[in-house]
Amino acid sequence: MIVGDPEGKGEAQINQHGSVFVFALIVAGTGLMLASTLLTRSAVEERVSVQSVNLARAIHLGEAGVDVAIFQLRTDPRYAGANYTDLGNRAGGYSVEVTPDGPSRRIIVGRGFYPANDPTALGYSARTIEVVVQMAKVAGPGYGILGERSVRVDGRDDDGGRKRVKLDSYDSRHGPYSPEGARANVRLATNEHGEQAVALIGGVIVMGDVVLGPGSDPETTLWQVPKGWSSIRGTVSVAETDAPVEPLEMPALPDGGRLSISGHDVVTLPGGLYRFRDVHISGQGQLIFTGPAEVYVEDNVHLAGRGISTAAQLPTNLTFYVQGPHVAIRGNAHLFAKLHAPYATVEISGDGDLYGAVTGREVIVRGRGDIHYDEALNLYDVSLNPPRRTDPLQVQILSWRELDL
User: Fold this and answer.
1) Exposed (0-12), middle (13-18) or buried (19+): which is 144, by Cβ within 10 Å?
2) Which H or E run contains 97?
3) What's the pTM?
């Protein structure tokens, strides 16, 4: 008891103050514990977040290795991978391994490491990606002119001077031909290997490649005269095998007889399949197709006059299959068509341009018109459109999965 405080009020106040102090200590301690827990939890969450980010980075780095392998395989099917590649500045790196799985399949294993290929590094993460791919040659640009036995392009005037005959390409799926948008994917080809099987005479410009028959000597099989008048913007190569020439058989269609158009006559036909014994257009005659058409001709074809109007002027809308020995294309009208005459001598001597493609036994070009190969014609037919030796491989991904290290 406190002296002078008979009722004990002072002692009660002291006890009350002590209780408050103890309570304050408990609250403070609890607060410290909560703060410590929150700090610990925050640190753990930060580490987890950083680790998650680093794992994602490692996965992307592994995928980068796979992308490098796919890029390399397009031009080098023997590519076997690469050791660790460090991207520098603690940005991590990758390694890649390529294993054959048959003649055209490859197993690509890409490993990504972040921030470096060092397990003791702070925040180290590593991931492995396995991808199975299939490699195949894609279809090349096709043939603008294929003369199985010979091709002759004459760029001389009647008096022996030089005129310009241009062979180039375009893709009708992207719009009509324009000189500004012309492409250099035409291929002038033959399966013959004898002397002068391909003759470029006078001012001939080939915006693409010349492909000679197997066993050719380019010095003798390709004849350019005068030497400096013609030019080939692409390559001159010797094929390993003959270019496939699609055989031609007449289908069981109604016999349309002889289609002869002369004078100022105009014949209009809807799209469809037609079979004629021969086709002859002269004078100011004209044949018009209003829809996509395939025309089979048993004998010869002679196109002059105002020629043929193709639906939408798209070469993909008109194909002539000619079984006979001779095809002559003259006159001033442009022709939009694919011409397949594997047993014929095909003579193109008009002043109009030809848009499409030509296949013949012999092909002779001596007019003033140019030839513009439409790449859309054979784009999806690999048998008629074999890849070039220099064409890249197509690498298709068959499967993708993440592996445990």
Assistant:
1) buried
2) strand 93-100
3) 0.64
